[in-house]
Amino acid sequence: MAAVTRSLRLLGRQGLVASSRSALATSRCPVRSALYLYGSARCLTSKVTIDSLSSTPELQSFIREYKEMCKPDEVYICDGTPEELKSLTQHMIDTGVIRHLKHDSYDNCYLARSDPGDVARVEGETFICTEKEEDVIAEGAQRLPPGEREGPNWMSEKKMDLRMQSRLTGSMKGRRMYVIPFSMGKVDSPLAKFGVQLTDSPYVVASMRIMTHGLGQATIDQLKKDSDNFVRCVHSVGRPMQQKRYDSLLPSWPCDPDRVLIAHYPRLRKILSYGSGYGGNSLLGKKCFALRLASAMGQRDEKNPWHAEHMLIMRLEKGDKHKYIAAAFPSACGKTNLAMMTPKFGDWKVKCVGDDIAWMRFDDEGYLRAINPENGFFGVAPGTSEDTNPIAMKMIHKNTIFTNVAYTEEGEVFWEKMGVDIDFDKVKVITWRGVPHWRPNMTNIDGVEIKAAHPNSRFCTPLSSCEEVDEESLKDPKGVKIDAIIFGGRRSDTVPLVSQSRDWKHGVLMGASMRSHPTAAAENKGENVRSDPFAMLPFFGYNVGHYFQHWLDMERDNRKMPKIFQVNWFMKKDGNFLWPGFGENIRVLDWIFNRCDGDEGETKLAKDTPIGFVPQPDAINTSGLEAGVPMDKLLNVDKEAWQKEMKAVRSYLEKQTGNDLPGELRNQLQRVESDLKAMK
User: Fold this and answer.
1) Ramachandran region of residue 411, left (φ > 0), alpha (ψ -120 to 50) or beta?
2) Three-class SS string for 172-191?
3) Half-sphere exposure in the Cβ direction for 50 (13 Å, CA)
4) How far apart are alpha carbons 198 and 661 in whole angstroms?
5) By the 8 A CB rule, do 188 and 477 touch?
6) Are 264 and 541 in contact (CB under 8 A)?
7) What's the CA gap between 260 and 251, in Å, rounded?
8) Pairing assessment for the beta strands 480-488 and 563-567 based on DSSP bridges
């Protein structure tokens, strides 16, 4: 008891415990809550038991295997009912995992704060595990020192098994193991894939309820038809409760950040994650399953190959015409804002299918079909505002879990660039680290700026809360027909506002050539431009050279290939953005729409350049924009800058892929370089 009391006093000095007057709901007895963490709450009673899963023997065996290894005090199999959610939510409030946002403007919204050492993807400790290294590491990267390799990390299955066993053995002592059956994609979709995650984190259970389909009995019923047809996912926060002490400032967020390890086994269709509670590392249906593992599963599918891509899907509609667009951007580069765009020009309508991940496969008629396998949004909070994304700002007021944002004493959330006027002398803002009375430009004793919200803080919101969700996509389990694919990133120079590939092969080069400034979603950040092919660098589930070939192989004579484009909303001059962006991006999409609607080659809309087709000087409608938008600068193809760009692209691709770089991409590189050399 004394140790717990000392810990609570420490938390108070750090500003990490809300005052009794705060509008954030806390436990009525903080000491009881702290002790309560060592045991398992009895408020949840599972309607499904391990013994009752006899009709799904592979699932039954999977649960028993890891129950024996992780040694939880008890096992709870999620059924997905509203009663379950109510009990789980109250349990998390009682134990301090989340706080209920009591402000009148929120309906069923909560705030979680992570350990300061557990705030982002841990790419350096994320591995793809196969029997052969060449299945994962391209030939060029194999010859590089580990510190110079980019893309997936590899470890043999046997070696990873030993490392994981040493971590997972006994990792859930004193805790409950939650069993989460789930579907990525609607359970009736031909593109859907099923998974079962074991976790000792109730925060993960609540978040997976938002982010996945068919959680609970609906997926169990599907597995009765084929009980081995699921991806096995195991996650532990890595803090067994047998030790009667706290070694974290946030005992409500247990983790083991110094020993985080995440492993993907494509052959076994298995994911193991240890030590982190952060979304991308612990919500295994997201990036781990839906991108890394799924990308390998799609490439290995010999009967009907498919693609798992880091892409939004949106419906663009004008009058009686519409088109579906898939777009790839690195994390925190505006995917959610684009997917939920509120157009500021013309009579356009934008509907959101998904903001992060697309699964795509050609149908029997030759159309590229795509689904959003997720059922929610896991968006970056800082920068989201009424100006950048009014749709998101409305939807997050209902059924949302916020993580690592700041909050006010009145119980409202807050983050940088939120676009709200606050009198900081009257309104008390508490940072994500618990620092009270925050105000802009506040620094610590070392002169380092204190952020109100962590740059990678998140909101987790159901798809159903978005008023502009595309109803047509929800009705069709086969997925939507993709008309255009867009690649983009954060580039302050060189890359024009928009360009179009000459053909499919050139478009694959566009995707392979993507370069962007790093974002807060990754653990390693800096100001240098980083190559990020297809916005998949952190998520490749197999050899990147083979991945490029998988894209090239999509093109066949009987298929209706989407047009491919590249955009850059982020060009700057003297530190200022040249393009207004956000809702004004519809002007660029207007051009893309028209190019997909029968406008081919060099026309009054587009001119041919060495890097592809770019808009003619007056092809993008700028009426109504403030004077001074320099379209000549935004659409310029600078010969010298692009020669440097292609030199960097070639160097990167040859260095990282070596002999695994497809010959067709080498041909495309040569063509662009030759055209640039001949450019006047």
Assistant:
1) left
2) CCCCEEEEEEEEECCCCCCC
3) 16
4) 38
5) yes
6) yes
7) 17
8) parallel
Assign 258 to helix, strand or coil. Answer: helix
Q: Which two tokens stand for residue 96?
A: 């301090």
In angstroms, the CA 420 to CA 414 distance is: 9
The whole-angstrom distance between residue 216's C-alpha and the CA centroid of its chain comes to 23
| HEC assignment per residue over 545-601 | HHHHHHHHCCCCCCCECCEEEEECCCCEECCEECCCCHHHHHHHHHHHHHHHCCCCC
Name beta bridge partners: 184: 193
pLDDT of 39 above 80: no
- Given a cut of 80, whether residue 445 has pLDDT beyond it is yes
Q: What is the pLDDT of residue 43?
A: 61
Hunting for tokens 């971590």 — which residue is that?
Answer: 167
Q: What is the mean pLDDT of residues 150-169?
A: 97
Q: How confident is the model at residue 23 (pLDDT cuts 50, 70, 90)?
A: very low
Phi, psi of 283 (to 5 degrees): -85, 85
Rounded CA separation 549/299 (Å): 10
| Cβ neighbours of 596 (radius 10 Å) | 17
Minimal CA–CA distance to 332: which of 522, 495, 510, 491? 522
Whether residue 470 has pLDDT greater than 60: yes
Residues 6+ apart with CB under 8 A from 207: 279, 283, 378, 401, 460
At residue 30, the pLDDT reads 31
- Is residue 135 within 8 Å of residue 153, measured between CB atoms? no
pLDDT at residue number 13? 36
Whether 281 and 260 have beta carbons less than 8 Å apart is answered as yes
Active site residues: 333
Instruction: Quote the CA–CA distance of 156 and 132 in Å, as a whole number.
Output: 7
Would you state the pLDDT for residue 241? 79
Those residues whose C-beta lies under 8 Å from the C-beta of residue 450, and which sit 6 or more positions away, are: 431, 433, 435, 438, 442, 443, 444
Torsion, Cα of 136, 141, 145, 151 (10° steps) = -60
Higher-confidence residue: 463 or 30? 463
Residue 187 has pLDDT above 50, yes or no: yes
Segment 350-383, tens digit of pLDDT:
999 999 999 999 999 999 999 999 999 999 999 9
Q: How far apart are CA 58 and CA 64, in angstroms?
A: 10
Closest Cα partner for 77 from 86, 69, 67? 67
- From the list 308, 428, 392, 427, the residue with the least C-alpha distance to 582 is 392
* CA distance readout (Å), 191 to 296, 307, 478, 546: 15, 10, 7, 22
Give the pLDDT score at 199. Answer: 98
- Please tell me the distance from the alpha carbon of residue 97 to that of residue 558, in angstroms, as a whole number: 53
Would you call 631 helix, strand, or coil by DSSP?
helix
Question: What digits encode the pLDDT tens for the residues 387-422?
Answer: 999 999 999 999 999 999 999 999 999 999 999 989
Query: Which of 199, 195, 200 has the alpha carbon at shortest distance from 214?
Result: 195
Q: What is the separation, in whole angstroms, between the first and last Cα of the chain?
A: 78
Q: Can you tell me the distance from the alpha carbon of 331 to that of 596, in angstroms, rounded to the nearest whole number?
A: 26
Whole-number pLDDT of residue 28: 33
Average pLDDT over residues 476-487: 96
Residue 607 scores a pLDDT above 90: yes
Condensed to tens digits (0 to 9), the pLDDT of residues 652-666 reads 999 999 999 999 999
